[in-house]
Amino acid sequence: MRKITLKLLSKLSTKYLTNGLILILILFAYGIIGSHFIMGLNFTDSLYYAVITMATVGYGDYIPVTNLQKIFATTLALGGVALLAYVFNIMLTSFHEKMKTYSKGAKKMNAIEKMDEYYILCGYGRVGKVVLNELIHRNQNVVIIEKNEENSEDIEENESVVVINKDATENDLIAKLAGDKCQSVIISTGSDVTNLFIVLTIRETNPNAWIVSRCSKLENEPRLIKAGANKVVSPEIIGGKDLYYQSAKPHLLRLTVRHTSDEIFDEFKIISKHKCNLENIDYHIPGIETPLRRKINTMELSDGKKFNEYLKSNPDAKKSLDNLYHSVNNIHSHVISGPDNATFNALIKDLEKQEEIIGKNLNDKQIAQITKKELEM
User: Fold this and answer.
1) Per the count of CB atoms within 10 A, which of 8, 45, 123, 127 is most buried?
2) b/e per residue, 240-266, with b = 16+ CB within 10 A?
3) Closest residue by Cα to residue 331 from 377, 275, 300
4) Separation CA 29–CA 24 (nearest Å)
């Protein structure tokens, strides 16, 4: 506790303390000069009288007699009391504020400690807001590091979202946070220099961290990669959602399956049950390596119900979908994002009861070979 107290005192704001010290010196000079010319004391006695009067000690060895001397002594004593009270109040207020800040910071760190896994988002600007929305939509834990407190005022903090208003380039906080529990570090500040420094800071102590960095100027992309970024993306080319996808790369599952269009809703109920997000569906046309991709981007069961009801009330749409499934021999791949591998394993077990699973994380070439065999059969 003693070390913490000394640390807090050393960081007290010097602005008001300096002003108070200057005023005390001015009052002290007034006391010395007044003691010499008004009280008729020599320099040494003037120093002595100024100090004991300002401190309201008053030993009584020099007693003001004349009206002028009494006014001088009164003003010196009142000024001393007022200034000492001012300085003491500033110290108490500053200490209280620092204690509040320290306590708030400790609570935030405790909240982070309780998280099983989390993403780190450095920079909460235009791009950072989009990334945060994507992370929250997918029920991810997020630690936001934004030095400008005003920029992050609109963020609603809870057990899954923690905001730290510090400069990620000024201390080793981000290096400590980017440890084993960190899924990915997303760096989205608007300065390539700042992004580069953050990458270097993390990579120095966390060689296995997955780092995705924003790059404002495309020519800086090689520098960020050389510094240690796993992925570098430019908002000039792609948006905040793609920045999230790149950061979540270790937690994306491509599941190649076979089922008819009648089983779509039953399959989606299982995906939604495990709180996973269906990003898109790839339809693998036999003989063509590049799949036909359909973007979905939802985890809401209500979206699945709406689509199911739409197919029931629109026979032509249902027939077209059946034809698509028939043309690919019911083989297609789901790109699914989720919180961790344990969730994916549970998801796969449930899906195996519902449909045929052909493979996990197969590339287009591997799937093309499978569909080619289907043609030959």
Assistant:
1) 123
2) bebbbbbbbeebbbbbbbbbebeebbe
3) 377
4) 9
DSSP string for 76-107? HHHHHHHHHHHHHHHHHHHHHHHHHHHHHHHH
DSSP-assigned letters across all residues of 319-344: HHHHHHHHHTTTEEEEEEE-S-HHHH
The residues spanned by each domain of the chain are 2-111, 117-247, 252-376
Query: Is 371's pLDDT higher than 70?
Result: yes
CA–CA separation, 163 vs 353, rounded Å? 42
Compute the distance between CA of residue 34 and CA of residue 32 in angstroms, rounded to an integer: 6
Tell me the H-state helices in 259-357: 264-273, 301-313, 315-327, 341-352
Which CATH number among 3.30.1340.20, 3.40.50.300, 3.50.50.60, 3.40.800.20 corresponds to the domain 252-376? 3.30.1340.20
Residue in the block written with tokens 């948006």: 239
Q: Please report, for the chain, how many H helices and E strands are present, in that order.
A: 14, 11
* Contact (CB, 8 A) for 257 and 357: yes
240-247 and 126-137 helices, crossing angle to 10°: 50
CATH class of 117-247: alpha beta
Query: What is the side-by-side order of every strand in the sheet holding 292-298?
Result: 292-298, 277-283, 331-337, 252-258, 356-360
Integer Cα distance of 21 and 351 in angstroms: 73
Of the candidates 163, 233, 166, the residue with the CA atom closest to the CA atom of residue 201: 166
Residues in the chain: 377
Q: What is the pLDDT of residues 138-149, one digit of tens each?
A: 888 999 999 888
Strand, helix or coil for residue 42? coil
Among the listed residues 196, 371, 377, the one whose alpha carbon sits nearest the alpha carbon of residue 288: 371
Alpha carbon distance 129, 304 (integer Å): 27
Mean pLDDT computed over every residue of the chain: 84
